[in-house]
UniProtKB/TrEMBL annotation:
This is Nitrate reductase molybdenum cofactor assembly chaperone. NCBIfam families: narJ. Residues 223-242 are annotated as: Disordered. The lineage of its organism: Bacteria, Bacillati, Actinomycetota, Actinomycetes, Micrococcales. PANTHER family: NITRATE REDUCTASE MOLYBDENUM COFACTOR ASSEMBLY CHAPERONE, NITRATE REDUCTASE MOLYBDENUM COFACTOR ASSEMBLY CHAPERONE NARJ. Transmembrane segments: none annotated. Residues 231-242 have a biased composition (Polar residues). It comes from the Bacteria. The keyword Thylakoid does not apply. SUPFAM superfamilies: TorD-like. GO terms for biological process: chaperone-mediated protein complex assembly; nitrate assimilation. Keywords: Nitrate assimilation. GO terms for molecular function: metallochaperone activity; unfolded protein binding.
Length: 242
């Protein structure tokens, strides 16, 4: 178990906001389902899911489909070991590339546990049973929840979780863009379906890009973005049919 906290990275540049794409609820769910798979550790399970994901991507609006299809080509063309190493170097070791949404606002502070409980409670309120051993704020898990939220109440809860952490998602997009990461396309595809940034969210995003997540260490090392290695998996790759 890794308990170190990497040195803060250089300030990630603020990237221009994306123009939101008009999508239907079904298109949003399909986008989030595809992204929930493609943001997982790129092992054999993810690669085996490529044909099914590609079929879903083909039904999406052009700006979203273009980005996801570009990443699918990366999965098909880049050597497995190279892409797996890039995933670890990006999401396990870069503070601003955390897959855990509450980390951006709370970092390794006492507030983190409460924030995680709120995610778990939101899932229970929607009647959704999460699988795997990942923390409830793990982005692929949140996207899978959004993808499978077919009734109005669950859809509102999913939208609330993603909306409340939109600033963190934008920090992730900014950091991936700065790193010229192939996963930028996947996160951008998600952002395109979340609507435009409001002023308050944009201000929080700028603050987080400037300062990074809080770093108070209080014995919550197991909750940080550096505890999840390639062996940890969520249920997101068990199917890609919305």
């Amino acid at each position: 178990m890794r308990t170190f906290l990497p040195r803060p990275s250089a300030r990630a540049p603020e990237v221009p906001p994306l123009a939101a794409v008009t999508v239907t609820p079904a298109e949003r769910r399909r986008t989030h389902l595809a992204a929930s798979v493609l943001l997982e550790y790129p092992d054999a399970r993810v690669r085996d899911a490529v044909p099914d994901v590609a079929a879903v991507v083909a039904t999406l609006p052009e700006p979203v489909a273009t980005r996801l299809a570009r990443f699918l080509r990366v999965l098909e063309e880049r050597p497995s070991a190279e892409l797996e190493a890039a995933y670890v170097a990006t999401f396990d070791l870069k503070r601003r590339c955390s897959m855990y949404l509450t980390y951006y606002a709370t970092g390794d502070t006492r507030k983190r546990g409460t924030a995680l409980v709120r995610f778990a409670e939101a899932y229970r309120a929607a009647g959704w049973e999460r699988g795997g051993d990942e923390l409830p704020d793990y982005l692929p898990m949140v996207l899978e929840f959004s993808a499978r939220a077919h009734d109005d109440d669950a859809a509102r809860i999913a939208a609330g979780l993603l909306g409340a952490h939109r600033d963190g998602i934008e920090v992730l997009r900014s950091a991936l863009t700065a790193a010229q990461s192939p996963w930028t396309d996947v996160v951008e595809a998600v952002c395109l379906t979340l609507g435009p940034l409001d002023d308050a969210t944009r201000e929080r995003f700028v603050e987080l890009v400037t300062a990074g997540p809080p770093t108070e260490m209080v014995g919550l090392s197991a909750l940080g973005p550096y505890e999840t290695g390639p062996a940890a998996q969520s249920s997101a790759t068990t199917g890609v049919r919305a």
